Amino acid sequence: MFIAANWKMNLDKRLILEFSNNLNDFKFSNQVEACIFPPMTYVDYLNQLVSKLPISVGGQNCHYKNFGAFTGEVSPKFLQDTGCEYVIVGHSERRTFNNENNNEIKLRAQSAVDTNLKVILCVGENLSDRKNGHASEFVEKQLLECLPNNFENSLIAYEPIWSIGTGRIPNYYEINEMHENIKKIILQTINKEIKVLYGGSVNLANINNILDIPNVDGVLVGGASLKAKDFLAIYTAAVKHLQKNHIT
Hints:
Layout: E1 2-6, H1 13-21, E2 33-37, H2 43-49, E3 55-59, H3 76-81, E4 86-89, H4 92-97, H5 102-114, E5 118-123, H6 127-131, H7 135-146, E6 155-158, H8 172-190, E7 196-199, H9 207-211, E8 218-221, H10 228-244
Parallel strand pairs: 1-2, 1-8, 2-3, 3-4, 4-5, 5-6, 6-7, 7-8
């Protein structure tokens, strides 16, 4: 089980210190892996604060080159140097606001993998594709055009664009069907099984229902991960889910 906390452009240095202090007395489980993705400027700072905790730190994005004249971009090599283990690639906000297409996302993902970072590759349809019954085709195209080589140690995050930040999420059947399809496509493509996370308006009210869906291997959490007590509550829900289902 995997809990990914994407802070986006939130939490300054003071709030990050406050957040991390609230983690020190918590009893973490070896059954649930957690990774926090802070703003890029605080990756090294957060990594120092949680260095003695079983929490990984990741980057919210990376460039497809390790070095060069790319003002404002972040090298995957630099992320690795500052202690990152994971990086998010292809988040819907990057696709929408930064016009990143599938080809560019594949290059970024490949660069990250080649630098020994584990990638969380995001895919997801917009509302019109969902309503028109084209969601599965849309996501399959994203996967086939974005998957880098040597993806075995990475993850997929399914995040329907129309659900992010809206409070609306697909129903049980829709999430399970999409995750099942994603796993089949990945297995056919790289002959490996990988974890598929759900992302999109995950919160304390729906986390238990989401984790009960058979093909969900964890969650990518946005706004609900900005407070330590909420982040830990979601983490605890994952632990209890595994215990309830006797998963080791």
